[in-house]
Each structure stands twice: as structure tokens, then as C-alpha cells.
User: What shape does this take?
Amino acid sequence: MKYVKKIMFFIFTTAFISCNSNSDSKKIGLLYWSSNNTEEIEFARYIVDNWNKEHPSAKVVFQPVPEGQSSEEIILAAVVGKTTPDIYSNMWEGDVELYARAGTLVALDTLEGFKKFIYERCDSAVIQEVTSEDGHIYQLPWKINPVMMLYNTNIIKSLGFDKAPKTYSEFFEAAKRFQKDSDSDGYVDRWFGYSEVLVTWWQRFFDFYPLYLAASNGGSLIKNNRAVFNNEAALKVFEFLREVYKRNYFARERLSARQDVFLSSVIATRFTGPWEISHSEKFKPAGFEYDFQTMPVPDDHRGSTYTYGDPKNIVIFKSSPNPQLAWKFLQFILSEENDLKFLEITNQLPRRKMIDENPIYSSYFLKNPKMKTFAEQAKHVKGTDQSPVLKEVFDLISQEYEACVIYDKKTPKQALSDAEKAVNLLFLK
Amino acid sequence: MKLRKYFFYIFLGIGALTFLYPFIWMISASLAPENEIGNLIFLPSTISFGSFFQMFDKIPIGRAFLNSMLVSSSVTIGVLIFGSMVGYALSRLEFRGRDLIFYIIIFTMTLPFQITLIPQYILIVRFGWVDTYWGLIIPYLMNSLGIIMFRQYFKTIPQDLIDAARIDGCNELQIIFRILWPNSIPALVTVGIITFMASWNEVLWPLIVIRDEKLMTMPQLVTLFAVGGRAESQLGVKLAAATILALPIVIAYFFFQKYFIQSMASSGMKE
Amino acid sequence: MKKKITPYLLVSPYIIHFLVFVAFPVGFSIYLTFNDWNIISPMKFIGLSNYKRLFNDAIFWKSVFNTLIFLMIHIPLQIIIALFLAELLNQKIKLRGFFRGAFFLPVIVSGVVVTILWQQLYGYDTGLLNRLLIKIGLGKVGWLTDPSWAMPSIAVMATWKNVGLYIVLFLVGLQTVPLQYYEAADLEGATHIQKFFKITLPLINPTIFMVVVLSTIGGFSLFIEPYVMTGGGPLNSTISAVLYIYKQGFFYYHMGYAATLGFFFALIILSVVIMQKKFVEKDK
Assistant: This one.
């Protein structure tokens, strides 16, 4: 019996101590969560150290978001478990509306000096994009990674083109010339491009969605709780992609089990973002050259070519005891000088207007010419519509995408109409 | 007659091969250099631990192993203790409501988990046990099958042993742990192995309750690694993760094969 | 009077656990089915909307259908192979322990390991199966990419994983058949096959039934294999009911709807198991 008592005492003491230490950590200044990407952690450290030097009485503590399946899930777990930080800087634009409507985010436009700040940083289209349905703004645009067409310069030249394909017909022509069965086993083993044939909702950010934005000049998927994507542009995109798979210009199989298929010239193009640059520089074979270009558009397309920017924004949680102070810290992160530091450390574009013309950043772009292409694209970049069920919308579109584009079981018209119906059902409560 | 024997051995041999080859291939492939995996049939040309090093780099598999050990051991100990407590009460003691409890236990065994999954998660949220070990351990501390097995086994223990202990002044708990347990080793081993294995291999519940990588169990971590984007272009790393995941149980299996098989077999019979 | 309290003390942890983790969830689950809730916003009462949605949810019904297809392939396959191998093992052969150990190995290994392995077997381009098929002159098969092959492929894999357990269970059952029956049959000159079908099979009926029920219940919880291997595709041909429920509840956070699906699916399972029991009892 004495044994049991001792054990119980030990267990309770441990539990007591661990409970207490949890509540202690909440009393330290501001808690800032950054993403857990190595470079962003480095940047966060830099920022926080500098801030703490200048504001010793209002210290900021930063933590990288706990590692998990996806940072979106971690944030949800934090909201549910009431362990949210004051500030979080890697919030995907599509997630914000859900949290805003649940009342967990601070309406930034109610903070002093916000309107002026955001009009200086962003142009009106972007501001419109991040405004919630209730008219408030719950997120501050931070960074973008535009999706563009990566291409193998030497292969394009060898196919007889002096520029990478810009329109759908040019794309088909180049793809036809590149397609080959090099080992004569009866199966094609060179494809012009590749996109994962997964039905996962976010996979569409690298095929359907940027192409749709390009074809529709930044059109929406949802507006006022209705699906508005069943239009000409989406139709053309579905038709384009379906043809591409039908003619086996894109592989239907999962090539991701192999080594990087772009660097080994198994494919010649890929729809991807600036993160590809550092990867390619590290692993490219000798003599390999590549560059980026805008997404292909329908032949009759007019105007600039838009794309998806994978925007990540900063939010302040309502649980924060001092939002005004958090806001001051935010402005510090996003100052011109710190944006430059961000660019240099992480090679990701801050979402501020005219970044390609602002002289502060010109030396960086001289050193990184490929990033200049992205900076120019930044003028025509769109994020997502503000809706709490955005993930599900993409999921439903993905399923029709799979049925039509990959398996050719439905016509594009049918697929889009079915997707529209399914999405509208979501709003029917 | 001899022909028939050969016939048997051939089929058994094919069978054994079918069941063993994939594992041999997995170990081979995880030790092979990345570019050979695609064409591998039996053995690689050289042994390379590259995939393993990369895996250790990418995911905290060691930590996950410890998490699994902690959770599975705690659950097993809990099930053994509480299971024998209830099993003893149901088999040896007379009290009102005994039959009712027995039927409740049978009922919970037939209840499909699909119906309690969501509310159990919500409970865990309300208790603040999301991303904690408690969330993984507490819901599994009571195991109906374990209780039934203990009850069955305790019934076979001679009443005299228990009576003698009572005369010596033992209370009920002491009877369970000092008298029944030493005489119920088969039951303890059986329930222990089944519980430990089931807990170790459980993935759905950890996927729901644990989001923080530091707390993930081993199968959960490997699952997410295989499904998520981080292992995508590297087959060797995925296979290395699978190998490491299989290793602990397979090693235990090598030593305790007899017990494993007997346990699972008798649990099936009880159903 | 201490004796009277002690049994209650002993079972009290179980009772508490049962009330908290079984009774309350079942009740709350039913309550949830009438609400719309995503955990972070307040609950909204919506009456029978979830049920309406369930009946119109093509994907849910497909997931139930998929699960049934899985069972219809998996269970017969499992019984035939397990019986066959158990019968072989039951003969006087050497190395029985080794064979039994080999067959049982996949049972104890985590489902994740098995899934990752078989993904490599089933891969379209670099998978072992297809490479073999090409070598012997046949074409590749889209084991996991063809909607008609995907679920059967998963069923075969599940059989491979679990058959060891059932071999062992059948072995136990086979060994309960009294040897005299076989000896009597030998005297009449019966062949092995005749003995098997006329003596063995009828006598191990209870074991067969047990295997069917266990496989059914296990099959209804199919989750990790489609989750890892195919994500439910292609064209929703492998999405199992549990996977769909998981998606609705823990991916979209439609807690009310997920609870409705779970509840309804649990009813389906119970009815199937009851039907199976009735079917067997009729025979008796």
C-alpha cells in the first residue's frame, strides 16, 4: 500500500508541475508563430532579435509552427485547443474566412493606422481580394510565390522554337515534337510536362487554378455564396488539360517516385514556383539551363497573363491581450528594409506593389534575374476568394477534374456543371 | 505417397515465398542506392544507408518510436490492471448488477467505433487533451476483450487459493496482484500481446488527436510521411521508414513467435 | 460490510470510463446528427438536414458500395486461401513452425508498412508486378490507377495481410476434428479431397462462420489502406465509408454531418452482422 501511495504522489506532482509550466509561458510578451521552413525561421529570428533590441519592454517570443501534416491543421488544432499565438505569419489566404467568421481573428482595419499602411503596401485589387464578406479586413498580405511555367531552355531550342510556348496551340505543337518512346518498349517515356494526378484539393494550384486565372484574367471561383466558375475560361482550361492527357503529353502515372524528372529531362516543362530555383541550382546536371515564363493561355486571349500567387498573410488572433502592440510589430516586419531582408534570406516575394520597380530591391534582382521574372508576374497575381469552405470547393472541382481531364469519362461541360451543382449545394444551408 | 508430400511442400513453399518476399524486397530496397530501387528484384549491388540517413533527417522517427513505446506500454499496463480488476469482480465476486455490467461489456464489443469516433474527439478537445499523451492513452485503458478473457481465465483458478489468501488477511486488490496474476501468466501474456500490438499499430485515432509532430506515434508519422509531400520523390526514404516501422514488432515476433500466434488465435476463439 | 463495497470499487473505473467514452459519445453522436458544427463556431440546430444530405450524397453511397465490393472479394478469397494453407499445414510435414511463422508475419506488421510495400508492387511504371508482366510479354495493368482494378487490388492486399491469422484459426479448428472420422474414411478408400469436403468442411463450419464475422467487422473499418494508397481515388472507387467519414469530420470539419454518416454506417454494419447470424442459425 505504501508503494501505491508513493506512486500516486509522484504522478500528481509531475502533473501539477507540467500544468503550471504551461501557464507560465503565456505570460511572456507577444507570441509570434512563423512557419517552420528553415529560411523563414532564420528571418523570424532576425526580425525578433532586432525588435527586441529596440523594444526591450515589449519583447516578442517567436516559435516555429509545430511540425505536423500541414500548418493549416496545426492552426486549427491551436484554435480548438485555445493555444493560439498573438501573431501568425503563414496563414494561407483561403483559410482566413473560416477563422474570421468564427470570431477568432482581429479585424485589422479597426487598428490605428491600418488603412494608411495597407494602401501604401498594396494596390486596390489586392485590398479588394483580402476583404472579407463583412467588409472588414482580417489579414495583411505578406508574401507570394507565383506559379509559372518552368521550362528547359535547351530542349525548347532543340525543338525549333526560340521562345517557350505562350498559347495552347504553341504548347501542343511543342509537346508533339517532344513526345517520344526512347527505349522502344511501346510506352512513351518523355512527356512535355507533368502535374500530379492526385485528386487532393491543393494539387489544383499547380494545374487547373493558375491556368484558369490566366485564361480569365484573374476570375473568381465563388462570389456571393455561388459558384461562378462554370464559364468560358474554365471550359477552355478543362478542354486544354483533357487534350494534354489524352494525347499523353502529360504523364498519367505518378512520376514522383523517381528522381526529379525535370532535371533528368524526362519532362521539359512544369508549372511551379520560385522555390524550384534553389532546388534546381543545387541538383541540376552540367550544362542544364532553365527559365520561367507565364502560364499558357487560350489562343484568343487578350490582356496580361494572371496566375495563382499562393499568398500567405499575417493575422492577429483575438486571443491576443494587446492587438495594438501586435500591430506595431507587424508594421516592423513589413517595413521596406525588412522586406528586402526577407527577400534575401528566403527568396520569396513580399506582396508589395511595384516591387520590380522599387530601387531598394533592384540590387537583389540584379543578382537573381530569375526572381525578376516572378517580380514582374507579381503585378498580375491573384490569391483566392474569401470563403469558409474554399478547401471543399477545390476538392469538388478536383473530383470533376479527375473524371474529365484524367479519365475522360465526362465532357468538360458536364464536369463543370456537376462541379457547380455540388458547390452550390455547399451553400444551401 | 511421396509425390503428395512434395506437392504439399511446393505449395507451402510458394506460400511462404509470397508472404516473405515483399519484406525481403523492402529491406533490400531500403539499403540500396536510390537509382537502383526502380529495377531491384533481389539484392542491391552495394549496401547504402543513404535512405536511412535521409529519413532520420527528415522526420523525428526516433521520437515517434519513443512515443509509441510510451503510449502502447501505458495502454497495455492499464488494460492488464483494470481488465483483471473487472474480470476478477465479474468472475469471483457476487454483487448486484454483475450481469448487467457483463452485458454492457458485450454490447460495447459489438458497437462499431464509427459511431463514437467524432464525439470521442470532441471530448478530448473539451478535456484539453488534444496533442497530449493523455488523449492517446485514456480512451484505450478499458478493453472489453481483455476483460472477457480475464474473466474466463480467472474462473479456472481454484477457489481454495483465493479463500486461503482471504484468511491470511489479503484485501481484494492484493488477491488480484499477488495470487491471481502469478497463476494467470498465459492470460496476461495473451492480453498483453494483443493489446500492445493493437495499440502500436493504431493509426486512425492518433491521426485525429495528434497534430504536433513531436507527439506522433511511429505508424502515424510514417503514414503522414508516405501520404504527404515530403517523401514524394524519394522511394528509398519511404521504404526506409517502412522498414524501421516494421522492425520493432518483427524483432519481438522473432523471439516470441509462439506467444504472438497463440494470443491472436485464442482471442479469435473467444469471439 | 467492506466486502459489499469492494466489487463496486473494482468495477467503478470501468463504469466511469464506459459512461464517459461510450455512453456519452453514443448519445452525443445522435444529438450531433441534428446540428451543424465545425468546432470553432457555435453549434447550429438544423433538424433533419444532415439526413437529407446523406440520402442525396452520391459519394457516401459509393463509399458504402466500395466497402461491400471489398468484402465480397476479400472474404471468399481469404477463406479459400486460409483453408487451403491450413489444411496443408495440418498434414504431417516438417518445418511447420517456420511456415506458420512466415504466413503470420504480415498480420502483426503495421498496415502502413504493408500499404507502402504494395504500392511498390502495384506501381504502374516501376512497380514489380508490371515489370514482371512486361518481361513475360503481357501489358501493364493500372492496378491502382484503373477504377475497375483499384478496389480489387486493395482487397488482395488486405487478404495477404490478414490470411495468416485465419490460417491459424482454421488450424485450431481443423485439429478439433476427431481422427477416427478420417480413419474410418480411409478404410472405405476415400481420397484426400473427398475426406476434405465430406468430413472436414462440415465439421469446421463454426470456425468458418467465425472467420466470416471477424473479416466482415474488420472489413467495415477499412481506412488506412485506401488513405495511404489511393486517397480514395481513382474516381472515388476506393473510398471506404470510414475514410469518407474521416474526411467529412476531420478534413472539412463538418462534425454534425460526419456524426450522421457514422451513426448511419454503424446501423448498416449491425444489420449485416445480424443478417449473417440469422443466416447461419437458419441452417442449424
Remarks:
- The longest strand of chain C covers residues 35-36.
